[in-house]
Amino acid sequence: MTKTDGGFEPIFCTIVPPHILDRLSQREDPGLASAARKTLERDAYERTHRRLTTVIGSPSVLPPAAAPTDQPQRTIYDARHSTELPGEKVRAEGGAPSRDATVNRAYAGLGATFEFYLKVHGRSSIDGDNWPLDATVHYDQDYNNAFWNGEQMVFGDGDGEIFLDFTIPIEVIGHELTHGVTQYTANLSYFGQPGALNESLSDVFGSLIKQYTLGQTAAEADWLIGAGLLSPIVTGKALRSMKEPGTAYDDDVLGRDPQPATMDDYVHTGQDNGGVHINSGIPNHAFYLAATTLGGYAWEKAGQVWYDVLTGGELKKDASFVDFAKLTVEAAEARFNEGEELKAVLKAWEQVGVRTS
Fold this sequence. Notes:
Blueprint: E1 13-14, H1 18-25, H2 30-56, E2 74-78, E3 88-92, H3 101-121, E4 133-137, E5 146-148, E6 153-155, H4 170-183, H5 192-214, E7 224-225, E8 240-241, E9 250-251, E10 255-256, H6 272-275, H7 281-294, H8 302-311, H9 321-336, H10 340-352
Parallel strand pairs: 2-4, 4-6
Antiparallel strand pairs: 1-5, 2-3, 5-6, 7-8, 9-10
């Protein structure tokens, strides 16, 4: 269970935005529409369940006292296409690889995320105190999503028509687990600009985890979120692009990627909690610009600045883009003085139209 004391407000976060599933649910193809509707209904149920659990409160479960803080504590479960969580335990920490590639990808992705936060930021798991990393695979039938529910990761297999197995992109695993990091640090609200920042931070660190695992520089990275998740029949490369928001897909079935890259195209909407998955493209692009301007490994400079803001205690739950941008400027100056890092951060926010002064 999740700790709900100390001001934590666990939220239900999915990798596939509702606007994509909404569009799929309206298709004439009964197979595509049915899978999308079922996913939307399941997401709505899980979201409501999360809110009720948060309101009622649930007992805290802390990591075992003897667990070493420099080693992950992973457990993979198999829902066997049911919706009962967590499911049957199929691989524990240190256990032999499974014959199921999905199980092994989930196990490896959890480990890669743990290693990134420990080696790069000195953080032991999502809460800083070696929180056990649990994941359930093969969730539901034709489930077109993956989510963090405040307690664990859950992966669907996709419908096989539009979406493939959700354990394929490592950045999806890193993205969802970073929602847990945000939960235990800034605890950003999940609506409007703070919600878009919540989503953006998960995209930023999801991408950095992939880059770190592959040993890629900022110039070598693809800056895609959900690469390899779309089936070959879809005209698209991912769910989102940090390099070029609005270009991840342009498909007859999915429609066109609606993400803006700058404040000039900010989307005002009441859907998706005020467009949290859409307007996250703006801070996403700011990070991409800062990281590629600085070059080298993105987690060493731009990533450190963003992490300092996330965990520094000054980022408020209801922070706007301007609030966040100003804190990144302060963090860049505090960590790197008035060097190229500060200039890159200032320029990046200027390019996306977010004020820093």
